[in-house]
Amino acid sequence: MSHSVRLQDLKGKLIVSCQALPGEALYGSDTMSKMAIAAQKGGAAAIRANSPDDIRAVCRAVDIPVIGLWKQSYPDSDVYITPTYADVEQVAKAGASIVALDATLRHRPRGESLSEIVLRARERLSCMLMADVSTVEEGIYAHKLGFDIISSTLSGYTPYSAQSAEPDFALVSELARQVPIPVFAEGRIRTEEQTVRLLQHGAYAIVIGGAITRPELITRHFVEAINSVAL
Ligand SMILES: CC(=O)N[C@H](C=O)[C@@H](O)[C@H](O)[C@H](O)COP(=O)(O)O
């Protein structure tokens, strides 16, 4: 079931991304649902989840809205977050009240364009659309196309965007200044201090994945810290 969402309910709130890919220890819809329940208990206002199976399971497990995406790879494109219209439709039908998709200007699979996908989604689906971008230019274009939300998700993951181990504070603040729709901060947020700073930079909501739901990553960060100390 899709839980309806009003954007103002997400304002100033935390969204937890519960994702594990094949090969990761926590991979599987059952585990992701439990992660989502834990996140809801901790106060998350929404969950971000990957794949129709996980989205269906998470929607059953929690009663907060689900932002859905589907990581898919196609041979003719580098775009992998909900790349095609068919993927958008599957994510929406699985119960996501917001569908997140790559909104970079890169070539998409099957020769589809971002504007066609948005147009078709508006005609046929009732979900909101979240633009995962990597630059200010992409965010401005996404706003022109009629997206409901912009997220800094892909900063550092396209070859031409800023590369940093930190969240992209500059992108979030520039987007918040230049586009009149909610800008979510997402990507490499690891600390409470960064979270507060991003809100002060104009982030409408904060999306955190790995620092909450990827124990391998969390463990590795501690191990690296320990290894950096010469004993
Ligand atoms: C770049 C990409 O594919 N990002 C994905 C988008 O859904 C996820 O792998 C991230 O976990 C999510 O964006 C949250 O970010 P972080 O895990 O850094 O808090």
From TrEMBL:
Gene Ontology CC annotations of this record: cytosol
Annotated pathway: Amino-sugar metabolism; N-acetylneuraminate degradation; D-fructose 6-phosphate from N-acetylneuraminate: step 3/5
Top EC group: isomerase
Reactions performed catalytically: an N-acyl-D-glucosamine 6-phosphate = an N-acyl-D-mannosamine 6-phosphate
Keywords: Carbohydrate metabolism, Isomerase
Entry-linked InterPro entries: Aldolase_TIM (IPR013785), NanE (IPR007260), RibuloseP-bd_barrel (IPR011060)
Pfam families, sorted: NanE
EC number: 5.1.3.9
The keyword Lipid metabolism is annotated on this UniProt entry: no
GO MF annotations, alphabetized: N-acylglucosamine-6-phosphate 2-epimerase activity
Superkingdom classification of source: Bacteria
Biological role: Converts N-acetylmannosamine-6-phosphate (ManNAc-6-P) to N-acetylglucosamine-6-phosphate (GlcNAc-6-P).
Family affiliation: Belongs to the NanE family.
Protein name: Putative N-acetylmannosamine-6-phosphate 2-epimerase
Organism: Paenibacillus taihuensis
Lineage: Bacteria, Bacillati, Bacillota, Bacilli, Bacillales
Name of the gene this protein is made from: nanE
